[in-house]
Amino acid sequence: MSDSQDLKNFTENALVEWLDQYGAAPYRAGQILRWIYQRGAGSFSQMTDLSKDFRRSLSEQLVISNLNTEQVQASEDGSRKYLFRLKDGHHVESVLIPERDHWTLCISSQVGCAMGCAFCLTGRMGWVRNLEPSEIVNQVCAVRNDLSNPSALTNIVFMGMGEPLANYSSVIQAIRTLVGPNGLQFSSRRVTLSTAGLASKLDDLGQAVTVNLAVSLNAADNETRNKLMPINRTYPIEMLLSACRRFPLPSRRMITFEYVLIAGVNDRPADAEHLAKLLRPLRAKINLIPFNPYEGCDFEKPSENAILTFQKVLMDRHYTAIVRHSKGVDIGAACGQLGSRA
Ligand code: SAH
Ligand code: SF4
What we know:
342 residues, alpha/beta, ten-stranded mixed β-sheet, two-stranded parallel ribbon, binds S-adenosyl-L-homocysteine, binds iron/sulfur cluster
């Protein structure tokens, strides 16, 4: 079976073409995909509206992959961290976050990350490898299967391990499966991609899929951002923000700018004023994320007073600025804490 292809790595078009060699009609592709994504079929034998011979030849050449859940840790705040083992022994993590009336799942796009942001534990691991489309989608399938009410999982955020735009084609394919009519049927209004700012890929992203955009800005001037996020040397703030201005937004939607607040680094009221000016030409809202500490990192979280002052400067300038105290700090599941082992 080792040379079998993973059905979950097929786009619908590729599956149509692949099936054509068996003389199967194009509509069979959608039928098979609905079996696996909507009815949770784990084997071809369950697909009772396909002939027995057809099912047998499919199962000889295709596998329906799953992720191996190695550990689930529950936080006292209700969030859960899933540790998945991949087929080559590497690991990725997803974090399930409780909201008032639904769940949000934070998923990973790479093992490790090449971006090397100074405040991020995943960044410290370096880049290990890209996830395949099936490995991205299977995080969602595995968690959904684990829920007593799977339909309560309505929101997906690409904010786990990795930089999604550095694994562009797999991430696009995964998003299409997440929102597709023959896929997992998430609303595209409830899928958010967070990027460190690969400006060159933002135009392509906006053309390829409809998705919410979050941008990890984290500093309001290039000098500070260069120190925190090496990618800023390639795509400085002006270049990133002009790509954001071109990004096609459905009506009334905004781009979320994430700003990790680090004591003495980017948390002065003057930084907030500068940020407010920078974002003025954009339809922007701001998520302030107080830095989550981890072992071996010298940065510190600002005082509560500094956080609130920063927020007030933005609110006084009519921005929606929300302080996001990360969930799951006690289980190492908070923003920037993922990925202690690859
Ligand atoms: N690579 C993408 C998505 C994953 S990181 C990106 O950078 O946007 C998800 C978010 O966690 C980013 O906004 C990042 O700035 C934030 N983050 C990383 N390390 C953090 C830390 N130690 N404390 C708080 N937020 C952190
Ligand atoms: Fe990678 Fe995002 Fe962490 Fe930066 S913040 S190292 S881009 S995961």
